[in-house]
Amino acid sequence: MRQDSLILYHGSKSGIIGEIKPISREYCDYGSGFYMGTEKQQPLTLICNYPEAKLYTMELELAGLKVLSLDVNIEWALAIAFFRGKMKNFKDSPLYNKYSILFSGYDVIDGYIANDRMFVVLDRFFGGEITDSALTNSLSALKLGKQYAAITEKACKNIKILDENRLSEKEREKLIILSEDNRQKGIELADRICRDHRREGLFFDEIMRSEQF
Question: What is the mean pLDDT of residues 32-46?
């Protein structure tokens, strides 16, 4: 492996056909793109319900690509809010305008994965149930893997498939149980954090109306 390349993993519901392209669904963590993760387990739990699911081992060459790296903090959470359409009710606000131009010109965005447990906490933050203080405290409590989103054709041409593995029915059954277990742990974590930090910090709508971010 070259020094400027990474070994990553991608889960597909039915396998990759043709060239790799940045055409995932629109409302993903970092927008439409081709997503790969640093941990095998994360893509596996996303595709385990599909009989034709396949796991790919891939190499991403970073040479010549413009990469934006996001730390796991409130800025990361707000980026996900933007790409998942959670900011659409705050168009023309300073924060919305900031995020609408922040990601232009990049080929790859890398940041942490909102996994099964973290997704529950993020959803409660976006829904106004917990504050940014509760959210950031939960970030430190979870071990999140990283993901790389190739968001341009140029980036996708730098991806090479190294291995393809179709999941067996037994493997999928185990992963379905694991995915549900992770989600339940996320619910329990969010409940505890809500209790411990209910009077600290700002709610999502307060942040969107604030000019301090």
Answer: 87
Query: Span 201-206, mean pLDDT?
Result: 91
Pairing of strands 67-69, 108-112: parallel
Give the C-alpha separation, 43 to 189, whole Å.
Answer: 22
- Give the pLDDT score at 49: 85
For residue 119, the model assigns a pLDDT of 75
3-state SS, the chain, equals CCCCEEEEEEEECCCCCCCCCCCCCCCCECECCEEEECCCHHHHHHHCCCCCCEEEEEEEECCCCCEEECCCCHHHHHHHHHHCCCCHHHCCCHHHHHHHHHCCCCCEEEEECCCHHHHHHHHHHHCCCCCHHHHHHHHHHCCCCEEEEECCHHHHCCEEEEEEEECCHHHHHHHHHHHHHHHHHHHHHHHHHHHHCCCCCCCHHHHHCCCCC
CA–centroid distance for 185 within its chain: 18
pLDDT of residue 213: 63
CA distance 48 to 42: 10
Distances (CA, A) of 134 to 137, 153, 183, 196: 5, 38, 18, 8
Strand partners, 203: none
This prediction's pTM: 0.85
Mean pLDDT of 37-42: 86
